[in-house]
Backbone:
């Protein structure tokens, strides 16, 4: 008898438990935590949390405008240079001396691992730039000792000295005038670190923590980072501008693009990077699709050090054989998401020139050129397709397959190669590829930012020039353009440079695309920027 | 267990790459470090000795370091296994409370419409592939209806420190002011994957419970009870259920291996941070140390569960205990 009742009672207890679980305890009264937290579903794992060391969009999106500030910044409205940590600056007439006047009472993050005792001063600025420039500084070689952006723009060769005038004044002296210098300092990479934190790390002998447990002055501070899974940021209460009204900002790392879409539709993310199925999102009344004309270029780059791709005829032949309109239709979904690239410069750049030689789609020309170069029918091309989505190339693997089909028509067999992103970049730097589908997003409005990082000789050695192409005439043209402030002269130099690229074809420009993002309606504020990474400063949730 | 260790040990020879690197996970070691590792694993001695050294490492809980993260594999397993245990337990629980009563009902209504209906539904349920069901469930409940989340163990909004690894316990012992919100959130996260995993075992329980109940109802003591004039309700609740349960419990253990396999697939789809997800990631990344360690841990875990269920069965069923003494 007792057992039977026990059984009944057990089931009754069970059903009530289930009811409690399902009904939950919403009646608690406290405001829900998720109401004030923003979850951003991002597309990849940042390799390191310091933008000085990386140009990858994943790192920049996560850190540059969240954890840090730069001396100056681009105004999101008109892309002019605006004050940030420096409240004003002065440039001498010869363009060689630039003096920055720092803002007072700017505080660094206070976290579990660091408590600042003083506000920002000129020492911190000196410390941050010396890390990049001064090989004797303790931190210079920490985390690899490579500063790809700064190396690609020749920062070390440009700076004569950086002096601390007083606590809140600092002066940069340049070896020569450089018209892109201010723009370079306003990029996401020129972040200001805390010298005091650096000293603490020297004492505890944990130098690499400068880049993995970052301290900055930005609107958010690091709480927790688990590579491959999430990044948790908290608002910086003593932020010099308006502190964020959010309680938390979480980067939910979701590399799969269907995964991100599902999470957005299921309400698990507030914002997602690089959404697919745009129509599905615009149809949903709770969601908005946003886009920004990004200054970028998606291209097919050849490894110009590897035969037979060191022969420009072979490169041009391949370019002739690729059906660009088909790629644009398939990968970028037509005109709404991208425009075909004529050269590496997007049409919105002031140096854009459509008077540049272009390559038309012609299988006959391709075959002719291959014949001239003495290539038989047994050429195999290892085409590397990047494993992540970027606005300039939302689906590199599919693009690679289209190119594979195109090149089959001229007798070139294509092997598609892909690795996880970190491994991909590492092997790419070693030059293991024949050709690669890659791209570049500009960090600032100066056209030099398309030329130097992508195709200069300096960049071939250390930076992002994965074609390893190095042409002295081309480099001289870039340099001449930087030396002058005369806009018409600069335009002419860049036109000539573009023609050299079109002739040599170290890379085949494919498309300039918009960057998309989808978010919930209740999220207010601008997250997307035309240049560089996203920003959650001033974002609110209602 | 013995065969299992031999298998994982030999795997490190069969996997591509250096045996020593495979077994220890030290891929970036300097020659000096490598020499040290070689000594530790008895590289210079015969294979039998090497196996002995390997066993020694195992007993010390040392499974080497993961080739990818360079963290000890044992630690990684300890941080992922609890999430799987949690998921499988909840799934098992759902399968039992849904499957067993339905099976009993089918048995009581033997050869009637209800019985046929239940049997055909359980056949369909058993035949549905779990990955398809998982995707379908996400499509319907997460995307179309928006009732339940589609991925993860809990919303990232809640910061729960991992103590036991079983999330529900961690939430309850954590000191967050949002305990109930977190608890709720974790519950909504577990419902979908647990139900998906539970479906196939539930249908098995339906049939097990039905068979067990039928044999009990066919037994002499039930006939005696009927002869005494008890009605069906009394017979079923007083006499049949407990006796039928005993037979079902014995098979629950056997279902566990099945359940873990289903959980591994489901974890990947629901992005559940469990051992299945971790192991499949390791396989993708050719992380041989992690594969060996993960296989060993998972198999030992299922092995232990089998032994445990045998004990539970023995404690529930006096006959099983008796027969042991008798033999």
Residues:
């Amino acid at each position: 008898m007792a057992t039977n009742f026990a059984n009944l009672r057990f089931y009754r207890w069970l059903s009530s438990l289930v009811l409690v679980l399902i009904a939950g305890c919403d009646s608690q009264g406290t405001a829900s935590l998720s109401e004030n937290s923003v979850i951003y579903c991002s597309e990849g794992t940042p390799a390191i949390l310091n933008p000085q060391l990386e140009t990858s969009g994943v790192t920049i999106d996560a850190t540059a405008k969240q954890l840090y500030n730069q001396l100056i910044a681009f105004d999101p409205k008109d892309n002019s240079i605006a004050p940030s940590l420096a409240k004003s600056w002065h440039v001498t007439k010869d363009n060689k001396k630039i003096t920055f006047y720092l803002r007072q009472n700017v505080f660094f993050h206070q976290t579990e691992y660091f408590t600042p005792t003083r506000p920002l001063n000129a020492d911190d600025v000196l410390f941050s730039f010396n890390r990049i420039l001064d090989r004797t500084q303790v931190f210079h070689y920490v985390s690899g000792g490579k500063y790809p952006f700064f190396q690609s723009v020749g920062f070390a060769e440009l700076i004569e000295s950086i002096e601390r005038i007083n606590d809140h004044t600092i002066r940069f002296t340049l070896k020569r005038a450089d018209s892109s210098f201010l723009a370079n300092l306003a990029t996401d990479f020129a972040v200001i670190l805390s010298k005091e934190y650096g000293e603490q790390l020297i004492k505890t002998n944990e130098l690499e923590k400068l880049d993995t447990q970052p301290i900055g002055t930005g609107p958010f501070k690091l709480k927790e980072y688990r590579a491959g899974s999430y990044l948790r940021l908290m608002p910086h209460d003593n932020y010099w501008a308006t502190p964020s009204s959010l309680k938390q900002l979480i980067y939910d790392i979701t590399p799969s693009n269907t995964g991100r879409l599902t999470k957005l539709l299921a309400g698990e993310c507030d914002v997602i990077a690089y959404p697919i199925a745009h129509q599905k999102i615009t149809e949903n009344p709770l969601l908005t699709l946003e886009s920004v004309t990004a200054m970028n270029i998606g291209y097919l780059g050849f490894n110009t050090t590897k035969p037979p791709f060191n022969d420009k005829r072979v490169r041009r032949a391949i370019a002739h054989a690729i059906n660009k309109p088909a790629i644009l239709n398939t990968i970028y979904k037509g005109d709404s998401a991208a425009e075909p690239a004529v050269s590496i410069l997007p049409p919105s750049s002031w140096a854009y020139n459509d008077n540049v030689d272009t390559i038309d789609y012609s299988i006959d020309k391709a075959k002719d050129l291959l014949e001239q170069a003495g290539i038989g029918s047994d050429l195999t091309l290892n085409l590397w397709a990047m494993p992540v989505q970027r606005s300039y190339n939302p689906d590199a693997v599919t693009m690679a397959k289209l190119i594979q089909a195109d090149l089959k028509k001229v007798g070139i067999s294509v092997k598609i190669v892909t690795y996880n992103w970190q491994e991909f970049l590492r092997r790419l730097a070693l030059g293991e590829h024949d050709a690669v589908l890659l791209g570049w997003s500009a960090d600032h409005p100066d056209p030099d930012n398309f030329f130097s990082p992508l195709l200069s000789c300096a960049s071939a050695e250390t930076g992002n020039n994965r074609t390893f192409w190095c042409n002295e005439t081309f480099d001289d043209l870039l340099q001449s353009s930087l030396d002058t402030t005369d806009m018409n002269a600069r335009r002419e130099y860049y036109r000539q440079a573009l023609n050299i690229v079109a002739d040599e074809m170290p890379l085949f420009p494919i498309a300039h695309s918009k960057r998309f993002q989808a978010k919930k309606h209740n999220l207010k504020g601008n997250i997307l920027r035309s240049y560089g990474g996203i920003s959650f400063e001033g974002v609110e949730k209602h | 267990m013995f065969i299992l260790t031999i298998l994982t040990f030999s795997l490190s020879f069969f996997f591509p790459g250096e045996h020593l690197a495979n077994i220890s996970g030290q891929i970036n070691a300097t020659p000096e470090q490598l020499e040290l590792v070689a000594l530790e694993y008895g590289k210079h001695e015969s294979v039998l000795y090497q196996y002995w050294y390997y066993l020694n490492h195992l007993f010390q809980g040392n499974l080497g370091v993961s080739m990818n993260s360079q963290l000890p594999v044992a630690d990684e397993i300890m941080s992922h296994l609890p999430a799987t245990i949690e998921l499988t337990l909840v799934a098992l629980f759902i399968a039992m409370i849904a499957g067993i009563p339905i099976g009993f009902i089918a048995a009581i209504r033997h050869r009637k419409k209800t019985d046929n209906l239940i049997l055909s539904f359980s056949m369909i349920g058993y035949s549905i592939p779990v990955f398809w069901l998982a995707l379908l469930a996400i499509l319907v409940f997460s995307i179309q209806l928006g009732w339940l989340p589609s991925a993860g163990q809990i919303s990232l909004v809640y910061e729960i420190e991992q103590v036991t690894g079983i999330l529900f316990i961690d939430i309850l012992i954590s000191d967050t002011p949002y305990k109930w919100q977190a608890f709720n959130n974790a519950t909504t996260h577990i419902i979908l994957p647990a139900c998906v995993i539970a479906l196939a075992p539930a249908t098995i329980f339906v049939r097990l419970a039905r068979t067990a109940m039928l044999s009990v109802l066919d037994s002499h003591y039930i006939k005696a009870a009927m002869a005494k004039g008890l009605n069906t309700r009394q017979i079923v609740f007083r006499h049949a259920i407990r006796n039928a349960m005993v037979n079902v419990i014995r098979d629950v253990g056997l279902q566990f291996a099945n359940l873990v396999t289903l959980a591994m697939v489901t974890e990947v789809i629901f992005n559940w941070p469990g051992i299945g997800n971790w192991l499949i990631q390791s396989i993708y990344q050719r992380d041989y140390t992690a594969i060996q360690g993960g296989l060993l841990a998972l198999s030992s875990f299922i092995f232990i569960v089998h032994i445990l269920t045998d004990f539970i069965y023995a404690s529930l069923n006096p006959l099983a205990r008796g027969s042991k003494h008798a033999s």
About this structure: Chain B has two domains: 2-59, 77-325.
